[in-house]
Design goal:
With 754 residues, this protein is mostly beta strands. The protein folds into 5 domains: 93 residues, Immunoglobulin-like; 181 residues, Immunoglobulins (Immunoglobulin-like, Sandwich); 84 residues, Immunoglobulins (Immunoglobulin-like, Sandwich), CATH 2.60.40; 90 residues, Immunoglobulins (Immunoglobulin-like), CATH 2.60.40; 84 residues, Immunoglobulins (Immunoglobulin-like), CATH 2.60.40. It is built from 5 helices and 56 strands. The strands form 15 sheets. Strands 2, 5, 6, 9, 10 and 11 form a 6-stranded mixed beta sheet that branches. Strands 13, 16, 17, 20, 21 and 22 form a 6-stranded mixed beta sheet that branches. It starts with 8 loop residues before the first strand and ends in a 53-residue tail after the last helix. This is Immunoglobulin superfamily DCC subclass member 3.
């Protein structure tokens, strides 16, 4: 029964029309749905009673025998007509059809005489208003203008353009306006073509630019642009927003007029006509706006639904158009009024009906309307009601327990209680809309519920429903009660010692305090019973200094928040100033200037130390580099000496040691081209130690001037730069009294060859 064919809906609705004076007019209306269906008509919201002039046909259409714009009694057949259809399930209303009389005014713009030089451009215009829009044709010398001539351009708004004028274009022009209401002729205008084509340069100039147009989708727009100049300018079109104009449905009329067929909303914009001098950037521009409107149409239709009693029904109706349409809801043909349980949201696109009952069963219509047109869609709400459901719960009472708790109690229904499976308590702030309601389920044997987590000093509404497996009972009576007021919570308190006689009490403002009007501050010496205070502080104050205190005793500080319901619990802190006094005595104030100077001196010393350290590192690196170089040179020299033949043992020194290179002078003489050792550099890099110098002196004095070694030179070399050759001493008799200076020195142990 809920199929499409059973729904009461329009198959044909009346449409806008233009009627001719004294001619008949028919407005069509066809409806489908479950019979019987009654159809009636309204004009401007008033019911039309059948009469000789207007009556309803058997198919539901309205017939007006002789349409009259103004009747003898001052009434008019013009207006907005709609068709209403009603059956057992409800009533629907059609869209409004606007009926206007066909008319034509007098010309308010006539063509004007013109004198134009040969090769130029001539433009004539005539303008007239009428319904429907008159068709304007042009005559030259009482004959229709030849539209096959490409130099002649006729625009829909009554404009005639003639380009590339010639002598034969001279003549008398007038226009003829025609529609279903009348035919009218304009005044005549003479065109005179003078002289020959001029070769004088003229800047491009736009004689007439595009007008601002407001049209409806699927219509045709003509944007006029006529330009002159010598040489003849090139006319081009663009959009001010930079978007391409496109090619589909676009046509150029004459030398520069833009025609757009089958308009869409996307064609809306500002169009720019440009007249360009060929081969240059010299140009002139003119612009006009095009607004394309679209009548309202539905994107989403409302759907018929069936809902049990006490539930929520939601209808959604989404429409689009340009400008955006306004949405209105009807209930059985009457404008729907919102209430506590009927809400409109999302710019009237969503209709919500809360806690439905049998009185809400009806046909709901969504009307979408804008300046370009209107449309409607309907849906039916069926309320399901089962026989034998419980009656509403009785004796609902609500009692305030605390600032956040209310006790709700009730009695079971009077009828049909056997099938009850439970109760549902509906809770809502009294100031909130119905959609903010929430529920709590209760077992069937429970007749009271403690509602917690409520807000202090707030009114709440409650009602109960009894539920069975087949549906819910009607709602009980609504009871409203308010929670108690609540005192503020304890504030957080902190104490800071400022000096030996002053402390600062600070606290944090917090939403956890709740609503409060201010704070009260008390303080006292702990051995006294009497407080100083209260010091009343505003709710936005978060600190207070307590001065003129005695540093030798301990103080108790107490803070609490208060409001119209009373004082909240207090926060207590204890503070002693004695430690502050002792620290002041033990740690006198520092000499800041002296400390600053010491800090500066310490900083300077650190910087100097860093510089010295870096310098030492650099010198060490240089020392290692040059030392390595000198060592390489000495090692090479020693290697060369080791390669020379050794002298006979008899010629060796009595010391038992022979320095390699003792005959250095002879070798130097033999090898004049060899590398010379820079002794000064070696002595500078490897200075001899005092022990080495003494050893060298001893060795030198051991030689007698008569010995063959008188020409031997001893090189001052470090110990690691010469070789020591181990020799076995000859066995000699022991001389306990001393040793012969010429005798070999005793061997003190093996010597490693270095």
């Amino acid at each position: 029964d809920f199929g499409r064919s059973s729904e009461l809906a329009f198959v044909v609705e009346p449409s806008d029309d233009i009627a001719v004076q004294e001619q008949p007019l028919i407005l069509y209306c066809q409806v489908e749905g479950i019979q019987p269906i009654t159809i009636t008509w309204r004009k401007n919201g008033v019911m039309i009673v059948d009469s000789e002039n207007a009556f309803m046909l058997a198919n539901g259409s309205l017939y007006v025998s002789r349409f009259q714009r103004v009747r003898g009694d001052g009434s008019s057949d013009e207006g907005e007509y709609d068709c209403m259809a009603q059956n057992h399930y409800g009533l629907v209303v059609s869209r409004k059809a606007k009926i206007q009389a066909a008319t034509m005014s007098d010309f308010h713009i006539h063509p004007q005489n013109a004198v134009v030089e040969e090769g130029g451009v001539a433009r004539f215009q005539c303008q007239i208003h009428g319904l429907p829009e008159p068709v304007i044709l042009w005559h030259k010398n009482s004959m229709p203008v030849n539209t096959d001539n490409e130099r002649y351009t006729l625009l829909p708004k009554g404009v005639l353009q003639i380009t590339g004028l010639r002598a034969e274009d001279s003549g008398i022009f007038h226009c003829v306006a025609t529609n279903i209401a009348n035919v009218k002729f304009s005044r005549e205008a003479r065109l005179t073509v003078s002289g020959s084509h001029s070769t004088v340069y003229k800047d491009p100039m736009i004689l007439v630019g595009p007008e601002n147009l407001t049209l409806t989708v699927h219509q045709t727009a003509v944007l006029e642009c006529i330009a002159t100049g010598n040489p003849r300018p090139i006319v081009s079109w663009s959009r001010l927003d930079g978007r391409p104009i496109g090619v589909e449905g676009i046509q150029v009329l004459g030398t520069g007029n833009l025609m757009i067929s089958d308009l869409t909303v996307q064609h809306s914009g500002i169009y720019v006509c440009a007249a360009n001098k060929p081969g240059t950037r010299v140009r002139r521009t003119a612009q006009g706006s095009l607004v394309v409107q679209a009548p309202a149409e539905f994107v989403q239709h409302p759907q018929s639904i069936s809902r049990p009693v006490g539930t929520t029904a939601i209808f959604t109706c989404v429409a689009q158009g340009e400008p955006p349409p306004q949405i209105t809801w009807l209930r059985n043909g009457q404008i729907l009024e919102t209430s506590d349980h009927i809400k409109l949201k999302n710019n009237n696109s969503t209709l919500s009906i809360y806690g439905i009952n049998q009185a809400d069963e009806a046909i709901y219509q969504c009307l979408a309307e804008n300046s370009a047109g209107s449309t409607q869609a309907s849906a039916r709400l069926t309320v399901l009601w089962a026989d034998g459901l419980p009656s509403p719960p009785q004796g609902v009472r609500a009692e305030t327990v605390s600032a956040t708790t209310i006790q709700v109690s009730w009695e079971k229904p009077l009828q049909n209680t056997k099938e009850i499976i439970g109760y549902v308590l509906h809770i809502r702030k009294a100031a909130d809309p119905v959609e903010m309601e929430y529920q709590e389920a209760v077992s069937k044997s429970t007749f009271q519920q403690l509602v917690t987590d409520l807000e202090p000093s707030t009114s709440y509404s409650f009602y109960i429903k009894a539920y069975t497996s087949r549906g819910a009972s009607k709602a009980s009576e609504v009871t409203v009660v308010s929670t108690l007021g609540e005192v503020p919570a304890m504030p957080s308190l902190f104490i800071k010692v400022i000096n030996s006689t002053t402390v600062q009490a600070t606290w944090e403002p917090s939403i956890k305090l709740g609503q409060h009007e201010g704070f009260k501050l008390y303080y006292r010496k702990v051995h006294l019973s009497q407080y100083t205070g209260p010091v009343l502080l505003a709710s936005n104050v978060t600190a207070y200094n307590i001065t003129h205190l005695d540093a030798s005793v301990v103080y108790e500080v107490k803070l609490l928040a208060y409001n119209q319901h009373g004082d909240g619990n207090s926060t207590v802190r204890f503070v002693s100033l004695r430690e502050t006094v002792e620290r002041t005595v033990l740690n006198p104030p520092c000499d800041c200037m002296k400390d600053e100077q010491n800090n500066k001196t310490s900083t300077t010393g650190i910087i100097i130390g860093i510089h010295i350290g870096v310098t030492c590192i650099i010198f060490c690196i240089l020392f290692l580099m040059f030392g390595y170089r000198g060592r390489l040179l000495m090692c090479k020299n020693v290697q060369e000496q080791l390669s020379t033949p050794q002298i006979p043992r008899s010629q060796r020194s009595t010391t038992g040691l022979v320095l390699n290179g003792a005959t250095r002078r002879d070798r130097d003489d033999r090898d004049l081209n060899g590398k010379q050792l820079d002794m000064n550099e070696l002595e500078r890099l490897f200075p001899a130690s005092p022990s080495q110098e003494q050893q060298e002196k001893g060795v030198t004095s051991a030689h007698s001037p008569s010995t063959p070694h008188d020409e031997t030179q001893i090189s001052t070399l470090p110990l690691d730069e010469f070789s020591i050759i181990e020799e076995q001493p000859d066995p000699l008799p022991k001389n306990p009294h001393g040793s012969n200076p010429a005798a070999p020195a005793p061997d003190h142990g093996p010597a490693n060859e270095g």
